[in-house]
Amino acid sequence: MKQYYLLITLLCSTATLYAQIDPVLLRNTPKDTAEMKMNMDAIYNRPFLQLGKLPVALGGYVEANYQYLKENGISEGHQFQMRRLTLFVSSAISKRIKFLSEIEFEDGTKEINIEFASVDFELSPLLNFRGGVVMNPIGAFNQNHDGPKWEFIDRPISATQMLPATWSNVGFGIFGKKYVKDWVYAYEAYFTNGFDDQIINNAEGKTFLPASKTNADRFEESFNGSPLFTGKVAVKNRKIGELGLSYMGGIYNKYQEDGLTLDKKRPVNVFAIDFNTTLPKSKTYINGEWAWVHVDVPDTYTEQFGRNQQGGFVDIVQPVIKKPMMGFEKAVLNVALRLEYVDWNKGSFKSTGGNISDEVFAFVPAISWRPTPQTVIRLNYRHNTQHDILGNPPSKIAGFQFGFSTYF
Amino acid sequence: MNKKRMVMGLLITILLAALACDKILPGKPADDSILDGPIDGLTGEQHQMFLRGDVAFNDDVFTATNGLGPLFVSTSCGSCHAGDGKGHPFTTLTRFGQTDSTGNTFMQLGGPQLQNRAIPSFMPEQIPAGAAFSKFTPPANTGLGFLDAVPDNTILSLADEHDADGDGISGRVNWITLPPYITHRPGTVERNNKYIGRFGKKAAVYDLMQQTANAYNQDMGIVSSYEPYDSYTHAEIDPEVTNQKVLDLVFYLRTLKAPIQRNQHDADVISGKQLFLNIGCAKCHIPELKTGDYSIPALANKTFQPYTDLLLHDMGPGLNDGYTEGGAMPAEWRTPPLWGLGLSKNSQGGQYFLLHDGRATTIEAAIKGHGGEAQASNASFQKLSATDQAVLIKFLESL
Predict the structure, then answer these.
(1) Which one of A49, A281, B123, B221 has the largest count of C-beta atoms within 10 Å of its C-beta?
(2) Quick count: other Cβ atoms within 10 Å of Cβ B165?
(3) Domain of A379?
(4) Which domain does B200 fall in, by range?
């Protein structure tokens, strides 16, 4: 743990941060594998294909699966799901100006989202400017969420239902990186449009940050005129791993309209820590994220909507066979385990002083086979234990999922 | 690893997973351990209506956008009746009014129910100065259709308002005025344009339609065509829930199954039931009732075991909150059905909140809280040996 404190101290005391957009990725050339990639690089750390002399490169990924789940003995039967089709388009406008967009079709065409569409300007090696639809860098999963990178069919509950991954908004900001021997330091800071009062006014019946994603107007106008700030600092050591600390905060409610005061300003604050590493001997990959959400919910509103939430996940991925298999030269067979937990409502009842429950715990053992690094075929067993707000006997959901995800 | 081994490995993994399915997927809880689920004998069409009502009851969460409040107690039906069981003090309902039966003069001040929560920017209600009040823990929904199908004459036959038989028990009917949207059940009895109330802590509700329309309006601030007045402005506004949804929900409540007794052949449970009868509990908590003709054939002419007489009883000064509801005086409470009692902890967060306001956190405490007409039974219970008390409670927990 001391090492991490040291890393954080070093990061905070670093006065000069260097950054440079890597244009290599936008060309149809091999990647610089020596350079350390961080979660913030995930949007460019994808396979792109450039056709001839076209000024744009294309890419994407697709994932589909079968699942059979039971909740308290009742099943909805055999389900085949087309979870995502995502298309990337990138363009090197000049050597130091790049554009990248990501358009996602979820559950067929049920949801179509522009998840990312921004222009990056490299103003100097120390400073990059980004504007457009940006992915708020809260935690790690929100930026590094491509299906083919994960051994699990479901995205982490804490990342997608507590933090609202994938969460992107219109805004502007800066980012940068500095490499020093085996170390790399990075920062990001953005002001964007933000949340709205749906986070405590939704059919989920709980404080639910993703509810704001249904407000398509957020790409056109801010709900309340107050910007959402998202900032992250991260440090990575080639031998130790990557540690990120992030914050996202702003006002979520409409506190005034036409100059008239409607309510006081009510903030939402989110803190997250993320970490990933690969153990040198066993090559075990460990990746985790934990976050805390604090929402100023009116005292006169129902306790059903939590003032505090916390949760996270840890993935442990162990390659067990790494050799050519069935004609695939770089095939890898992994076993993996995800543990995840979310407390949707951290607190106690005013009426009894008893604990407010409303929490979910899940474990997901998995087997994944990667015929190539860009493609994963996954078999998961999922087991969720979910308590209601009163802490009554839990609802249990469990079942098997089988599917694939691949870049193309 | 060659291709053949790889394919074999994959096939074996899939086969093992398939074989393991039944072992490692969560099984259905035993029917006698849960309160939800429909009665037997419904048709496919009725099952569809039940499912629609189930969604309306358990999944529909109201928000400021679709009509919640602005003043309210809860955001959904299910939040007051988890798993269709008894509620938790978190959603206790507070009724206020006056101590006598001359009528609730606080109706224009937000009565009869306090909406103690509000959507953002609004302030919740306060109990007006001078108003008496009482707190009601939400009851279980289980088996309500059976209670609804009990003929009025059966209830009247159990009443003994002036204690003619001299047993100290004088159950009486709460005669209530019906709202215009109520359809009388077959054979309903009318006196001076008033009808028998059988639901609610004070028996102030005629049937499940009235209960549902009231709960939408007073608990969630949802206006329907049946209860068209907004609980905040007291003005008539457009319905915020469709008639079909209200009807589906009423059907759901009517067709929820009755709780199934557990361990009924256990020797202690059998002995406990005998003690229950011996000390006079069954004079009010009538073990068995029978339904009459009913619009849902699966509920018609059925014998069932609710442990209630659906009548008002004077429960003594300890349970007198000073609040009158209709003709039900402050110390009078309708005999609550005891079926499902043993499962209450599973909907109340792991502990009991019993009696009308949840003040009793054990069954013993609830029995000790009985006064008035039930004082003799309470005293008899106290005289039982510790073993017999435990056996009687074991019987109650089996219900």
Answers:
(1) B221
(2) 10
(3) 2-407
(4) 31-398
